[in-house]
TrEMBL record:
Protein name: LuxR family transcriptional regulator
Native organism: Candidatus Kurthia intestinigallinarum
InterPro entries the record matches: CheY-like_superfamily, NreC/VraR/RcsB-like_REC, Sig_transdc_resp-reg_C-effctor, Sig_transdc_resp-reg_receiver, Tscrpt_reg_LuxR_C, WalR-like
Keywords: DNA-binding, Phosphoprotein, Transcription, Transcription regulation
PANTHER family (UniProt xref): TWO-COMPONENT RESPONSE REGULATOR
Modification sites for 4-aspartylphosphate: D54
Domain HTH luxR-type: 143-208
Lineage summary: Bacteria, Bacillati, Bacillota, Bacilli, Bacillales
Molecular functions (GO terms): DNA binding
Length: 216
């Protein structure tokens, strides 16, 4: 079962999502939150697999709630479900750790498929959100590059990580143990000040670190 937490300040939206998701045999809605603060608290209590997160909510918005959830519970996925597709919302949401970004006019069947893909490890963006993210990345490319603190081997691991490879696959590609890969990834997260693989991959794209270091 895919355990879902719904976070939205509109009761009608929560009810609609609950009604539809309950028709899916592999979904279980474990809770509802009316604001970001409740979403963080319920995530800690219920340990869902994924949080459907609204962006604009009282007490704590979806971006701040996502940051707190990913910091405390990195295994919990967050899918932004919102009415906003502008860069000022898209980029901070992805940087906060959201694994997906969809608009509320999404078709129900597409929403279900999006959730399943995110649970399977994919990052899913609405085309409008993807376009905004690409434009932001292009602007970043034209700005002076930030000097990164990674060793050549850590950069190699990061490059493999951005391809969506698992720790086992990275270990096989670099001829190291899986334990060594885990250590490198932990160091990468700490040095780049990111919380998960999605944020690390985003950093790599922004700073042209998607290719191996070229050093043994």
């Amino acid at each position: 079962m895919i355990r879902v937490l719904i976070a939205d300040d509109h009761h009608v939206v929560r009810r609609g999502l609950l009604f539809f998701l309950k028709t899916q045999k592999d979904f279980e809605v474990v809770g509802e939150a009316a604001n970001g603060k409740e979403a963080v608290a319920l995530t800690a209590e219920l340990q869902p697999d994924i949080v459907l997160m609204d962006l604009v909510m009282p007490e704590m918005d979806g971006i701040q709630a996502t940051k707190k959830i990913k910091a405390q519970f990195p295994a919990v996925h967050v899918l932004m479900l919102t009415s906003f597709s502008d860069r000022d919302h898209v980029v901070p949401a992805i940087e906060a750790g959201a694994a997906g970004y969809q608009l509320k006019d999404i078709e129900p069947d597409e929403l279900v498929e999006t959730i399943r893909k995110i649970i399977a490890g994919e990052n899913i963006l609405h085309p409008d959100a993807s376009e905004q993210l690409e434009e932001a990345e292009k602007e970043e490319e034209n700005s002076p590059h930030v000097k990164h603190p990674l060793t050549p081997r850590e950069r190699d691991v990061l490059a493999e990580l951005t391809k969506g490879k698992s720790n086992r696959e990275i270990a096989s590609s670099l001829f190291v143990t899986e334990k060594t890969v885990k250590t490198h990834i932990s160091n990468i997260f700490a040095k780049l000040e990111v919380q998960d693989r999605t944020q690390a991959a985003l950093y790599a794209v922004k700073h042209n670190l998607t290719e191996p270091s070229g050093k043994v």
